[in-house]
Design a protein that fits this description.
218 residues, globular, Nuclear Transport Factor 2, Chain: A, single chain, 10 helices, alpha+beta, signal, five-stranded antiparallel β-sheet
């Protein structure tokens, strides 16, 4: 059950990391520039309506033209997800002392692999989801914040989702998503540990890029 839920949330997290989960506790609308540089709630407030509206208004186009969907997903993912920091978390001990260029190559390859695998699932994403915020708490050592929430689906059990966010480049970005206690970072750290024991980060990145290795949350 947990493994089946994680791919769904990963697909949503590609373009909606923390957008819907914070909407119900967001502050009054701020000017666009302030929203981009402000708190998670301010950032989420401006993004939620735009992203969900885009998914609905362009659903037919995205269904016909997967290239347009890919462009949209890439744009939102790059804006909201701290892929380099997340990549270093996934690499774990294998990333200690690794060159930034190698970590970036791995992060880019992992993100692209995930988007190819799960991006089209966004066409089935329920833009009418309701969300219940459980808590928002600081992470240890000032690493960021954890937003704990539940996704409320019509006719389905609530799905607990936690988003870990940190300040990066002057704005809040997501670096991990946890669904029913199963972490994005931990899942892929376990998956790639054996590969990284036998191969360099560069080789694993190349194989992810080429599709020889598939990132999977199943």
């Amino acid at each position: 059950m947990i493994r089946r839920a994680l791919p769904i949330a990963l697909a949503a997290a590609l373009v909606l990391p923390a957008t819907t989960v914070l909407a119900q506790q967001a502050r009054p609308a701020a000017p666009a520039a302030a929203a981009q540089a402000g708190s998670p709630s301010q950032l989420v407030l401006s993004n939620t309506e735009r992203v969900l509206k885009t998914l609905e208004s362009r659903r037919a186009e995205f269904t016909r033209d997967r290239g347009a969907l890919t462009t949209f997903v890439n744009s939102e993912f790059n804006a909201m997800f701290d892929r380099d920091y997340a990549a270093r978390q996934v690499l774990g001990r294998h990333g200690r002392g690794a060159a930034e260029a190698d970590v970036k190559a791995f992060g880019d390859a992992l993100a692209d692999n995930l988007m190819r695998k799960y991006g089209s699932s966004l066409l089935d994403f329920n833009t009418q989801l309701r969300v219940r915020i459980k808590s928002e708490q600081p992470l240890p050592r000032g690493l960021g914040v954890r937003v704990s929430s539940e996704l409320l689906r019509s006719g389905g059990e609530p799905i607990p989702v936690d988003f870990l966010m940190r300040q990066s480049g002057g704005t809040w970005k997501v670096f991990d998503v946890s669904v029913e206690g199963v972490s994005f970072v931990q899942t892929f750290r376990q998956q790639f540990d054996a590969e990284l024991q036998r191969k360099s980060i560069q080789q694993v990145a190349r194989e992810l890029r080429s599709g020889q290795i598939q990132a999977t949350a199943e």
